[in-house]
UniProtKB/TrEMBL annotation:
Protein name as catalogued: DNA modification/repair radical SAM protein
Span of domain Elp3/MiaA/NifB-like radical SAM core: 105-332
Keyword Phosphoprotein: no
Alphabetical list of InterPro entries matching this protein: Aldolase_TIM, DNA_rSAM_put, Elp3/MiaA/NifB-like_rSAM, Endo/Exo/Phosphatase_dom_1, rSAM, rSAM_sf, RuvA_2-like
SMART domains with a match to the protein in the record: Elp3
Recorded superkingdom: Bacteria
Provenance organism: Sphingomonas metalli
Keywords: Iron, Iron-sulfur, Metal-binding, S-adenosyl-L-methionine
Length: 461
């Protein structure tokens, strides 16, 4: 938007000379009474006439593309002592999930969907013809408190397009969190999206007030970022993540020595990658995620399947990737974080010719089918690392097997009691009374162990 902020846009008396405004709309959308005429055929909506409900509709809808809203892992805080308001734990916190599985228990909004950047994949980019709105910091504070009191939410997830400058925008985001914490003693969960180009001191202040901060790496490869978000700088994004990591480490050291030392982002930092907007394969994404976990101590990497947007740029694919691809990437992430798979092992589960994980089976089963020579494993003797690689055995089941086998040798029935389906497990294990005969050598093993698809009933009890 060539440097003009939306606030400045609002103060423009109509009509004016033709200017390169991009936040335009057509009279057919909202009616002429809401529009200021800038030039023949060019109108801009009067934002002052949007009430809070309209702004909320626009800015909550604009925030839905951000997947990184889970509130796990924060410090326990509550107002049971009668002081303050809000809680990050226990009863009274309402959790809800959208049909696509995204967490919506937080008030998840943008401060504004206006932006001076023009990232191709983003509906809020400056050249996008969407309806714009902007909250003040006070409005977000009031909304959060009102929703919290009604028990609609357990906290706030706040992000923003960039207006005026990264520093100005970051100041507004920090002001929301500061006011909630200091003026209203809000003890609920706050997740702030931070802006990598903002002054590091502002990012530090965000971490002082928020439970979690996140900086989006946006795309899995440097080439993808350069092509689809040319105004963003991969080095600056990583620099900001390194600063946050250092502040979290300093804060942990301080709280070990002094219990009352101020905490910095106790729920850590996370990031998000868009999947399917560029040519990156699942193998590229898995490797990138693993590097991010190692280098920046991230709590989570979120994967967001690219959604085609109206008036999309020609450099974007026309179709969205299957949502199942996003799901398989989350499963592969899970394997690295909880099942001790190395990134190269997860990559090995992908099809070598395409670098993509199969969509019809999970990556753990894909790995086991590809490396059949490692199976069957003896459930009564195998190390934990190999038990974790048996399709159908979860971490809890593996821990139970390790405990039980100290006292007796386990039979197939014992294992069946610990799992949802023993059919998937049988070809891969040896138990006291069970040995699969040539099962892992069968050409049709995959259909035998692939979960059957079933039509779920919409109104099932
Ligand atoms: S900076 Fe953020 S809000 Fe602005 S266009 Fe890029 S992705 Fe969208």
């Amino acid at each position: 938007m060539t440097g003009a902020t939306f606030a400045q846009v609002l103060s423009v008396p109509a009509p004016g000379p033709a200017r390169p405004f991009t936040h335009v709309t057509s009279p057919g959308i909202t009616g002429l009474s809401n529009l200021v005429r800038l030039a023949p055929g060019t109108y801009i909506e009067r934002m002052a006439q949007l009430d809070t409900r309209e702004k909320l509709a626009i800015l909550a809808d604009a925030a839905k593309y951000d997947a990184s809203c889970a509130s796990s892992g924060t410090a326990k805080r509550n107002s049971a002592d009668g002081k303050g308001i809000g809680s990050t734990e226990g009863m009274g916190i309402c959790h809800a999930y959208a049909p696509d599985g995204r967490c919506i228990s937080l008030l998840k909004i943008l401060l504004t969907n206006s932006c001076i950047f023009d990232c191709h994949y983003c509906i809020n980019r400056k050249s996008s013809n969407v309806r714009r709105a902007r909250f003040t910091a006070d409005e977000v504070v009031e909304l959060t408190l009102a929703f919290y009191r009604r028990n609609y939410i357990e906290g706030l997830f706040l992000s923003s397009g960039i207006i005026r400058s990264p520093d100005y925008t970051m100041e507004q985001l920090v002001e929301v969190a500061r006011s909630l914490r200091e003026d209203h003693h809000f003890r609920g969960y706050i997740h702030l999206k931070t802006i990598p180009d903002a002054d590091p001191e502002l990012v530090r202040l965000a971490g002082v007030h928020a439970d979690r901060v996140s900086i989006n790496v946006e795309l899995p490869t440097a080439g993808g970022l350069k092509r689809l978000a040319p105004e963003k700088d991969g080095a600056r994004i990583e620099g900001a993540m390194a600063d946050v990591k250092a502040s979290i480490a300093d804060s942990r050291d301080a709280t070990r020595k002094y219990k009352s030392a101020p905490r910095f982002a106790p729920a850590g930092q996370s990031t998000q990658m868009i999947v399917g907007a560029d040519a990156a394969t699942d193998g590229d994404i898995v490797k990138r995620a693993s590097t991010l976990y190692d280098r920046f101590g991230l709590r989570r990497v979120y994967y967001s399947a690219f959604s085609p947007i109206p008036d999309a740029s020609a450099v974007l694919p026309l179709r969205r990737p299957p949502l199942m691809r996003e799901h398989r990437l989350y499963q592969s992430d899970w394997l690295m974080r909880f099942y001790d798979y190395r990134p190269d092992e997860v990559v090995a589960a992908a099809d070598p010719s395409t670098g993509m994980l199969p969509l019809d089976i999970d990556p753990k089963l894909a790995w086991a089918l590809r490396f059949r020579d490692r199976f069957p494993i003896d459930i009564n003797r195998a190390p934990r690392e190999m038990l974790l690689r048996v399709p159908g055995l979860g971490v809890k089941a593996v821990n139970a097997i390790l405990t039980s086998r100290r006292w007796r040798r386990l039979r197939l029935d014992d294992v069946a009691r610990l799992t949802v389906s023993v059919t998937k497990i049988r070809p891969f294990i040896v138990a006291e009374d069970w040995r699969p005969v040539m099962l892992t050598d069968r050409a049709d093993l995959k259909p035998l162990v692939t979960p059957k698809r079933e039509q779920l009933e919409l109104f099932a009890a």
